[in-house]
## 1
Amino acid sequence: MESDVNGAGRKVAQRRVGSLSMAVVCGLLLTGCGPSDEPEGAESTASTETDQVDEGSESGEVTEEAAEAEPEPEPEPVPASSEGPAENWPEPEIPDEVYQETGDGAIAMLEHWVETRNYLQLTGDDEPMWEISSEDCEHCQNVTERMTGVYSSGDNWYESEGSSIDRAFATNVVDSRAYVAFEFYEGIFVAYKDGDELGEGGGTTFEVAEAALDFIDGRWELQEVNVEPSDD
């Protein structure tokens, strides 16, 4: 009986010694001796850092894509003045009505033609006018020569309030040809050279005017314009 007790005591003592030795070893190595070698909280910290990096990368990609998709702003138009010619002046857009073979479509093209005339006077660019006019239009040739001639030297320009038409109506639309009677107002304009005023003109209403247009290739084209001075 005594031998059994002594044997049990020796086993308990051995287990204590073994536990103590393990504690000492763990203390010397300064590492945990549990199931995992990583200190508590290390996994969550690494995961958070990874998430932050991923979020930053995604944010950077979205910002870069948004920057690429954002269109560049249009330059601000600068009107003509005594200080210089117009800059970044927008070219007039052709209205949808000009593709209709009707009297209203012909009037819409005539109104657009006047807009191209105003654009020519402010920029010296006659291309938009000739895109919608017959090359045989004598009135168009006279207007073009007079206005582009001012800009040809490079130091002359116009300042203009713009011309317009009023009381326009189509007198006849037959066989793809239309005649439009209208009242034409030539806006006041000033010509400059190097900032010095050369002269002023315009401010005149022509009560008797007529335009001939043909419907060609699906839209109206200006053939000729006749503007007669008023009786007074």
## 2
Amino acid sequence: MKGVVKTIRGVGGVALRDVPAPAARAGEVVLDVIAGGICGTDLHIVADEFPYWPPVVLGHEILGRVAEVGAGVDEALIGKRVVAEPHAGACGVCYLCRRGWAQLCADKRSPGWGIDGGFAERVRLPAHLLHVIADAVPDDAAVLAEPLAVVCSGYEQAPVEPGDLVVVVGAGPLGLLAALAATAYGAAGVLVVGRHSSQLRLAAAAEHGLAVARSPDEAASWVAARSDRGGADLVVDTTGAASAVAMATALLRRRGRLLALGFGGAETIAVPWDAMLQRAVTVSFAMSSSHTGWLAATELLSSRRIAPEWLVTPFDLAAWSEAFDAVEGRHVIKAVLRP
């Protein structure tokens, strides 16, 4: 079968290769892959900026149909359309695992970097990580379950309270999903703030009913016009940029909440420490996705309280390089590979 493989360490080294078809082992399933979403992590792996164990098939945002089950797995799963938590290899016995934070286990080896992932015709995964997706959910929405679960897990750390004014910094897939989820969770107003290079994404967001701003000044005006509390209640940053943290601090009310969901790529960034202290800002960092975050994400999709399929642009697996370029160039919101 064909797969998009990170073949060697270093920058680049990605190719569409013939790879062995997987067979289900005890406790595992094999999926016929329907679609795999390209994440920023995949770009970081190509750029040699994220841990990985080559040769490895890329892709951890996976939608598929169960084709084969191993020993100990319920055969009723065969034929089911599923998504999967990317926490393969978590030990199950460390402090983090036993607290329900398997996503942070040091032994975790997720599909797409630690074990073969979903940019292939088939993928093998642990059965206990699967979530069945309701038939009513289109494929282009279901494939977004993993990034939506990241958002929902973040909102466990910094909840959206009914009536909140929420600002999301970053108009990429994670930011737009964060905005849609905040609306579904009962926010009174949600604003997406993007930069000049995100015009296509901001235009699409506005077309689908989201309020958008293209500068810190626009964002400040939007907040001032709507808040009687002195600022936004919650700012979600999906960029990891120092400028975004500074803007978030300026937009937040006193005792406001800042949720950090995005990597910035720098080892350290400057933050407005005194201003954050004076506002008594609560800062929360959320990494990867919890099991309960997945339950929330799949419920939001199944109930159609979120219908995010408009974010997706599909590409054939053979066009993987074109798809990666489209993501890096911000020509699409979310590129998805379809074997």
## 3
Amino acid sequence: MPSLLLHTDPLEPAMHGLSLRRYGASRGSHAHGHFQVLVGLSGRLDLEVEGRGRHIAAGEGWVIAPGDRHDFESSEGAQCLVLDTSELPWSRAVGRTPMAQRTLSLARYLALCLGQPDAPKLALHHGPALLLEAWGPLPPSASRRRAIDWAALSLWAQARWQRPLTVADMAAVVCLSPSQFAQRCRDEQGMGPMHWLRQQRLVHARQLRGHGISVAEVARRTGYRSPSALTAAMRREEAAAP
């Protein structure tokens, strides 16, 4: 990855890579279909995610979930280490701040690696996993939780609409057999796995439409074969609503 990246198209295809980014007084706003992890290196970044404001200074960080609209600017300039990733374990870090000193030390090292002409491949390969580990452990009650994290599974699916997802794919993510997952889905969501998956795709499509994206582009990004197929699916859902 290059050492500096410009902000690209909102909701671009899922990525997985580290970069250094500088932010200035020009206000930006977008959303994308993957997790974005921000760790402050210098200055202060003013961030607003889905209407909620945050400040990211050196050692502070935040995880932006797929699809979340966020605005950003820095009146005095800021530099951040940024990770763009579709890896589902990052859903556990959404809404949690990192352990500042540990994360800052790691972020500075990774930033140093990115700034070298011949970036150390091993460091950058393992950097995302180390960054997740440095974010700190889950609270004890959360780490004992064995229920399916349906919101996280939905985010995982959103990053993969272009693929023909199966019950076995979803079951593997939550470490269950396909039959076990299918039963859990019926018990907890009141529908079969593929019905649930279709609903998640429609929910995501409506979110994108809410951001003013055209029907054709939404259909492309959510894996529908055509705009008319998306429109028909939305009409069927509306007709089936009580």
## 4
Amino acid sequence: MTERLSQQFAFLLEAEKLKSVYRATPLADNSRRENSAEHSWTLALYALVLADQAGPGVDVNRAIRMLLLHDLVEIDVGDVPIHSSDGTAHGSADIQAAEAAAAERLFGLLPNDLRAELEATWHEFEAAQTPTAIFAKSLDRVQPVMLNLEGGGGSWLEYDVNWEQLESRVGAKVSHGLPAVWAWVQDRIRPWFTLRGR
């Protein structure tokens, strides 16, 4: 038991580092950038509150687990903004390989049974093939949209994002798992882009 607890706390202490990884998206009040731990916690709350939007076959509790774990790899890799200047870094083979290595290292701190369970959950989220992972991935895409809208543009301004980019990089993912949510969000964000000729 002593060895198991040592492994569990080694992982938990390593996970604390996620609080020091800052994302491209500012907080809604524009006071600073959101950190990845705050993002993960907020997404878990999104899953809980928007559970009624989940499609058939979605296990909301499993989605919450995915969302709490999904960005731990940023401890090693950092945040890779979806709207980066060339638009290719996010989701590239190099980033995927780096994140897989980070997942192996981080989950490798845990006892074998927990390692297998949590690493499988992380991989399921990344693959985005199950109804639960699609739901979770949709939430992951919509939350920064809400922060940018509330904060007057946030990273959209920084990365010079236009409507077509947002629709292809974000809208396609959100509408796949949360079609009613994306329709609602579109009604609120489209005027922001139209007003600015984007």
